[in-house]
Design a protein that fits this description.
Helix content: 25-40%
Distance between the termini: 59 Å
CATH architecture of the largest domain: 3-Layer(aba) Sandwich
Number of strands: 28
Structural class: alpha/beta
Shape: globular
Number of domains: 4
Strand order of the largest sheet: 5-4-19-18-17-6-7
Radius of gyration: 25 Å
Number of helices: 24
């Protein structure tokens, strides 16, 4: 074989989700010929999912964007970087001069979320901008987790992880690990883990749908959507009533909690959940001896009962002695920023000022609810939006209204690598290096399943005129008169520039950047129980079992329970993730927008398998294909998100927002189902 045709292999890791599975990239020259799992990666041991193996296809996709664009006379026109950044800076400066910095909003999207240097530079840009209008995926995904961590544990960065190596009782509530992988639970090779825990103990799945993970669990319960809180409320009530609770750390508010959960008798909880009483009795027998690990996903966090469900899941873990104990839950101490040595501050008031047009809503740790964006634009409060890697039209609620709002902006600057509906509406499109084109270290280390760090080198040269996100943002900052962080290289294409940016991010990490880069993967032993967690909870005065805001919301939910019941023959919609695409990305892998419906529900409507149907609310209507699924609970349909041709957010409402978390209602709302005309 000629030297030019020789295959070379480069070790890397996937940045699609927080599992960050090890990859080996095989190349001939600069052409990727194969992406495979890295069997030598200690965390993933050769496992990858279809999304991770598609990173080369993402790089080479014909819809990829490889040069900057600026809108002139209504059309996007390819241009140079200097012209693009000059024009963008001039338009932003005009907005700031005329309306103040608060007229510029910023969205921190998932597309830039796994780009460590780019994301940190975006944070530097926002800090100097001086605007309160910050948006992120948190309020369209899972604010309940941050809220509960703050109110119950006194710090929003507390993110419990299951000790799968020793766990004996695990509940999965509204999460499908075989599909979700890294989302919320960072579970590498989920089938293997589920089998292992089930052999050793019990794994229970609580989901309105018998899903892909269900064959690997001990028992599946299919409650009504959004009714998980009643199941957990019953379990906690019984533990306390029988005196079988056994917290491993100090607690506060036990009496108030007991009073708040008094209504959750066996009969009442079973009625709310729509389950036989025996199911709840069996589940109680499984959890009563503890420790119990509970993992929740978007099946919880996107519902109207997200906050109380997440809260009661924490309380169940606390009262079964699972928190910060072997066989239960552990808390990531951080690899880059070390919670165990920095002294975790007490942060039990996560609410911050919210958007002016929505006085009923607050911010959450500085984020405004995404649902408020259209109203802020229509009111003239936001004139420009810098979108760091978000597919807004497919991700935000009320897509039909959002499109109109985005079209009214003076500036919509989108950082992106693939053409989509949001880039089509943008005034500026700024293509960044994709994951194969840049070196990387993990940014969201505390969401990992291990106390580790990795390094991935750049594998191929940047496609076309793509540039590093940090370089693009720094160039914009300079043009706006902002101070670029010291040490920022002038040229991202210079040798070592990207690496220098990464090294500057982790001056206090457990290992140096040089060591992480040279070894490719480093890991440290996890302390469990972790002294820093117990010390923080003791300083906090114990786990707060009964935060007033959550007790109050629970009371309102119980009082309104009857109003949430569907009429006979009605349907509630739940979303779901899919194996071959992530949110709005990777649709080219072939996932289709199938609406899952129980055959017994479909028959009276004349709906056959693979038939075109419509799903409608008072906000809009979409057309998709029915897939008959006997595993669906009666009266429930499942519509996946992220599809442009059947955008589920044409059904959702910007006005259906949780008042204390800012989370929009994306699951459990009523829909009308009919055959397509």
């Amino acid at each position: 074989m000629a030297e030019a045709d020789a295959v070379r292999s480069v070790r890397s890791y996937c940045r699609i989700c927080t599992c960050q599975c090890g990859l080996v990239i095989d190349l001939i020259g600069d052409t990727v010929i194969k992406v495979r799992g890295d069997k030598d990666n200690p965390a993933s041991r050769g496992y990858t999912c279809p999304k991770g193996r598609a990173v080369a296809d993402l790089y080479a996709h014909p819809d990829g964007i490889d040069r900057p664009f600026v809108r002139h006379d209504g059309a996007l026109v390819a241009t140079s970087w200097d012209e693009c950044l000059d024009d963008l800076a001039a338009r932003l400066k005009r907005v700031i001069d005329d309306h103040g910095p608060e007229a510029v909003g910023v969205f921190f999207g998932s597309g830039l979320g796994m780009d460590a240097a780019g994301f940190k530079m975006a944070e530097a840009f926002f800090a100097q901008l001086g605007s309160p209008a910050k948006f992120s995926p948190m309020t369209i995904d899972g604010t309940a987790k941050t809220l509960v961590a703050s109110l119950v544990g006194g710090f929003p960065g507390l993110s419990p992880r299951t000790d799968y190596a020793k766990a004996t009782t695990v509940l999965f509530v509204g999460v499908n690990p075989l599909i979700s992988h890294g989302h919320n639970i960072a579970m590498v090779n989920p089938a293997l883990i589920l089998k292992d825990v089930a052999r050793r103990g019990q794994v229970w799945m609580i989901d309105p749908r018998v899903n892909e993970s269900s064959p690997f669990v001990t028992r599946h319960l299919a409650p009504k959507p959004g009714a998980d809180y009643a199941i957990l409320g019953y379990l906690v009530r019984e533990l306390m009533a029988r005196g079988e609770d056994q917290a491993a750390q100090p607690i506060a508010g036990r009496d108030e909690l007991a009073a708040g959960l008094a209504p959750f008798t066996l009969a009442r909880a079973a009625e709310i959940a729509g389950l036989p009483e025996q199911d709840l009795l069996d589940l109680y027998e499984a959890v009563r001896s503890g420790p119990v690990s509970v993992e929740t996903g978007t099946g919880v966090t996107m519902t109207a009962t997200a906050n109380v469900t997440q809260w009661l899941s924490w309380v169940l873990m606390i009262l079964t002695g699972a928190m910060n104990r072997p066989g239960g839950m552990w808390f990531h101490p951080g690899f880059n920023v070390r919670f165990d040595t920095m002294g975790v501050p007490i942060y039990d008031n996560p609410w911050t000022p919210g958007p002016p047009t929505r006085p009923e809503l607050t911010g959450l740790i500085g984020d405004w609810p995404c649902a408020a964006l259209p109203d802020e634009i229509f009111a003239g409060n936001i004139k420009a939006l810098v979108n760091f890697g978000g597919s807004l039209v497919r991700s935000f609620p009320d897509a039909n209204i959002l499109r109109k709002a985005l079209a009214e902006l003076d500036v919509l600057a989108t950082f992106e690598i693939m053409e989509n509906e949001t880039t089509a509406l943008s005034t500026h499109v700024l293509p960044t290096k994709s994951q194969l084109e840049r070196p990387e270290i993990p940014l969201w280390d505390t969401l990992s399943s291990r106390l580790s760090a990795q390094y991935a080198p750049a594998v191929v040269p940047p496609r076309g005129e793509r540039r590093a996100a940090w370089w693009i943002i720094a160039g914009l900052m300079e043009r706006l008169g902002m101070t670029v962080p010291a040490g920022t290289p002038a040229n991202d294409l210079a040798e070592g520039a990207d690496e220098a940016m990464l090294a500057a991010l982790i001056p206090h990490a457990r290992r140096s950047f040089a060591e992480i880069r040279s070894k490719g993967y480093v890991e440290e032993e996890l302390e469990l129980p972790a002294r820093w967690v117990d010390a923080h909870i003791e300083r906090f005065g114990g786990w707060r079992l009964a935060p007033p805001a959550l007790l109050s919301q629970l009371g309102k939910i119980l009082a309104d329970e009857a109003s949430r019941q569907l009429p006979p023959g009605g349907f509630a919609m739940i979303p779901r993730r899919m194996r071959r695409h992530l949110n709005a990305a990777l649709l080219f892998l072939g996932d289709t927008c199938d609406v899952l419906i129980n055959p017994e529900d479909a028959a009276p409507l004349g709906i056959a398998d693979r038939q075109a149907i419509t799903v409608a609310t008072d906000r809009g209507r979409i057309q998709a294909v029915a897939k008959l699924d006997p595993g669906m609970r009666r009266g429930v349909v499942s519509v996946p998100h992220g599809f442009p041709e059947a955008n589920v957010n044409e059904l959702t409402s910007k006005d259906a927002v949780d008042r204390i978390s800012g989370m929009v209602l994306y699951s459990g709302f009523p829909v009308e189902i009919a055959t397509a005309p």
